[in-house]
Amino acid sequence: MAVNRFVLNNISYHGSGAIKEIPGELTRRGYQKAFVCSDPDLVKFGVTAKVTDLLDEAGIAWKLYSEIKPNPTIKNVQDGVAAYQASGADCIVTIGGGSSMDTAKAIGIIAENPEFADVTSLEGVAPTKKHAVFTIAVPTTAGTAAEVTINYVITDPEKVRKFVCVDVNDIPDVAVVDPDMMASMPAGLTAATGMDALTHAIEGYTTKGAWELSDMFHLKAIEIISRSLRDAVAEARSGQPGSGREGMALGQYIAGMGFSNVGLGIDHAMAHTLSAHYDTPHGVACAMLLPVAMEYNKPVVAERLADVARAMGVDTTGMTVDEAADAAIAAVRQLSADVDIKPTCDGLVEADLDQLAEDALADACFPGNPRDADHAAVVELFCKVMA
Ligand SMILES: NC(=O)c1ccc[n+]([C@@H]2O[C@H](COP(=O)([O-])OP(=O)(O)OC[C@H]3O[C@@H](n4cnc5c(N)ncnc54)[C@H](O)[C@@H]3O)[C@@H](O)[C@H]2O)c1
Ligand SMILES: [Fe+2]
């Protein structure tokens, strides 16, 4: 067997009320002041305060940084590094979706490795020497799993591109996955971020580097997400908490344990490009591309897609491998439709296709795809999500 590396959080907490563990995780290590990274809406809606109130109760000082937009930019990171340095903080607590957590991860890395202050030099596998500032990550969406991944994604608005940074030094030390932190998500955000998580699990299961240990996480994640997402969206609509939200909190984390270690594929490469050009929410971009990417990859991963169908609860008895793979693609389309995700991308026009394909081919997720694709093939795939 080839040598495979696996990186996970040192400690993770799961379940309703898990955020109560945060003060103790800081004080037992002697940290004095937390740099709290969260986005402006989460501050406004009182989600960030659920954690900062606990810090106050425990007498732990903190300084807020919230200049973070969805699909965070180089400037969000650089301003954050300056704010961190001015704050006198000795640790980071990040509360938010992938945008807040990714910004915090980049800030924590640059604070300890200032030679990467330009941010863009972190793209790809970044040769940083020091581990990021001690970080506790608290997700408020059930999707990106940035709390357990060694990746972060930053947008370069000048070049109209998102870039992925991969670095074992950036994994948050502690993840606190508390479904109560996700309870205020509206239905649309629950659906989009949940489909991001499903995309992680399916791309992670079919990516080139997949192996038995990562398979274990991805199959379980597909199973939990497929049975939980519709309920989570219904719970978001009704405002009633339930097992859907809890399942999504866990399922997305398990997907992250897998894909962070083996990579993704063409869906994410193309999704990053759509978000950079049209500010498409990440989960929406992933969801609309998922059946398209599965169809494209089917000739080389049909058996694996048949496993995906079974993990999604499809009874494949009597089906050929080909039929079972098609059933997986149909099940994904149905799930997307059931949670009201549009199958086409707003803003996508023919004139942009060449540039989009070029950017997707250059994305760090692209080499993980199990089937090669040239420029013309990627243009054709983008056409399939054009309205
Ligand atoms: N690091 C990784 O491994 C990884 C993986 C996938 C995606 N990403 C990146 O993560 C980003 C997307 O993150 P995201 O999908 O979690 O969304 P997000 O962080 O961009 O947040 C989207 C919106 O949802 C709001 N929101 C978040 N939680 C909420 C809650 N509980 N209640 C109400 N509103 C809430 C935010 O305020 C924001 O306006 C993208 O930049 C993507 O590229 C990173
Ligand atoms: Fe993603």
Structure explained in plain terms:
It contains 13 helices and 9 strands. α6 packs parallel to α8 and α10 packs across α11 (321-338). The chain has helices spanning 22-27, 40-44, 47-57, 74-87, 98-112, 187-206, 212-238, 243-262, 266-278, 282-311, 321-338, 353-362, 375-383, and strands at residues 11-14, 33-37, 61-65, 91-96, 124-125, 135-139, 151-156, 161-166, 174-177. It has a 6-stranded parallel beta sheet, sandwiched between helices. It has a 3-stranded mixed beta sheet with strand order 5-8-7. By secondary structure, it is α/β, with parallel strands linked by helices. Nicotinamide-adenine-dinucleotide binds at residues 39, 41-42, 45, 47, 70-71, 96-100, 102, 140-141, 143-144, 146, 149, 151-153, 182, 184-185, 189, 193, 196, 282-283. It comes from Olsenella profusa. Its EC number is 1.1.1.77. InterPro entries: ADH_Fe/GldA, ADH_Fe_C, ADH_Fe_CS, Alcohol_dehydrogenase_Fe, Lactal_redase. This is Lactaldehyde reductase. Residues 190-384 form the Fe-containing alcohol dehydrogenase-like C-terminal domain.
